[in-house]
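TEACHING EXERCISE
Course module: macromolecular assemblies
Task: Read the component lines below, then compare them to the predicted structure of the full complex.
Student: A.B.
Group: 4
Components provided:
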Amino acid sequence: MSVKPNSTEILISGAGPAGLTLALGLGRAGFSTTIADPRPVGPEGGVRGAPGAGRVYLVAAGCWRIFDALGVGEKLRQVAEPVLEVAAAAGSDAIAFDGHDAGAGDALGYVIENAALVDVLGAAVLETANVEVRAPAGVTELAIGAAGVRAGLGDSGDVAARLVVGCDGVRSAVRAATDIGFEGWDYDYQAVSTVMTCPDAHGGRARQAFLRGGPIAALPMTEGRVNVVWSVKSAIAEALVAMSDAAFEAELDRQAPGFLPDARLAGPRGAFALSNRIASRFHAERVALAGDSAHIVHPLAGQGLNLGLKDVAALIDVITEADRVGLDIGSEAALIPYTQWRRADVVATAAAMEGFHRAFTAPRPVRMISGAAMRAAGGVRGARSMFAKEAAGVLGETPSLMRAPAA
Amino acid sequence: MPKTLEFDESVPQSPSIDPAEIEKFRAMASEWWSPTGKFAPLHKFNPVRLDFIRKTAIDHFGIDDSKRRPLTGLRLLDAGCGGGLVSEPMGRLGASVTGVDAGAANIKAATVHAESADVEVDYRVGAIEGLLAAGEPSFDIVLALEVVEHVVDPARFLADCAALVKPGGLLVMGTLNRTAKAFALAIVGAEYVMRWLPQGTHEWSKFVTPMEAAAALTGAGMLTAPATGVTYNPLTGKWSLSNDASVNYLLTATRPKP
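Instructor-supplied answer key:
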């Protein structure tokens, strides 16, 4: 190559929520960082119109601390809806608990739309020292050497870095350039997602009900809307997407009476396949994976982005600590602790989701037993307890960005 | 994604390395630097001792801990540097590093690696007494890590290292204690049971106790601090600093200003 490439310490491929949060954290920690994405970054840029553009996230309070620590928590709160209560129902049983119960302060978490999240994060990244935004300019070529990587950014030239972080989603090209495996299983289920309004105020309540066909969740959104995610067999999902608005509303009311009384559709319906995939390692020499490039889990408890944000916070700690003692931040020796730290947590979460999925989608006799067992053993309380702990950020070793600020 | 870009891994030829031998030393360097290979135990242990050196130097020289390259401006000698597992990080922390090792192959491997990692280290084949005899200017920091147990006369070696410390400078040594526990863990455990290290790596009778090390250093005009233990937790697989100096320990000494 005749032209010497621009050099940076860390190259992040992918400017979704995980990549942007990582860029903010690394820039603030003083690392020279470049973030590249084929889509524009910043207000009105990001992933609008891209697949997943309509995604809605539930960010647990423990993970929201990362946004607070990076100085974007307040701005994001203005475009997010706090979750004040979680109610789960199995059969005729219903439980409810609030933030006080979980010991996590006022809100258990926040519901935020993908577009709002990446707009605020993107604007903050553009103003962060040490971070160079190369967008729209995706990584089109990647050569991973023993001492560094070199990435081709199409027309925008090359970048050389000591470490590349793949925040480039489930079909990660960064991961594909390594020997890291991505194994898992698919469900014959799809999640039908849409936005609805209901005449009763949602009261900051996140609801989940375990219906005959599969679980349904409704997350409180801004402007009194709710995000409905209904997991059903693929064939039923296709029918739920294809039917008329009125038919969908009637079907919802028939399958889940009283769940969202008189709710009306306020957005398009989409269906996405449910699957579980976990990378065999979250790192290789010169490479780290964070977010969907490292794992996708069943969306039952809305843990996907939370796991990704924890990856980001843990990776910032691992890189900072390696650099503090003079280790090469892209070397395998520096990155091994990252896989050790994060993979076990992701595997445990995926296993829990799989357990819930099996309990709630089992054939009828088993399901009745599981319903009874849930009531007897406080299984719903188990789900609640996990959410509560997750919300408080107490599972596993807590990354520094997720620690409660000193009182 | 097509990997059409060639990553340039060629290194500038070092005057001491025969180009025909580069590949051999690159292979040796990868062996030294693989965290899962032959030197895996050393890699697991490394962050703890690097952290100790950083903290000790920052405290001793009154350096701002928030600096990214806190050892900038300090001359550092890594005696018995091997493949450079400590020399390189010290260079990255800003120190002007001289790495000395009696093994010519080690030095060549370390040189090849440092060049590819873009870290400047002055590597030299030789012995500490050679540096002294040649009138090498003294250093702000002298490191003697996992090396005294491999030399013929540890007391003499430590005195030579001490002689290379500037007035007001710092020496950090790390080694294995000569205790029954060290014999059980470092030789029987690490070499024969866990096979972490090749058999014969260590000879128990050559291990040096903290008192013997302190005596040698005090005799050479240094002020020594109590030894700090470095212990391995087999449950977490992690090393950490501790009060238990009965197996691995780190000892610091300073040369008073006149």
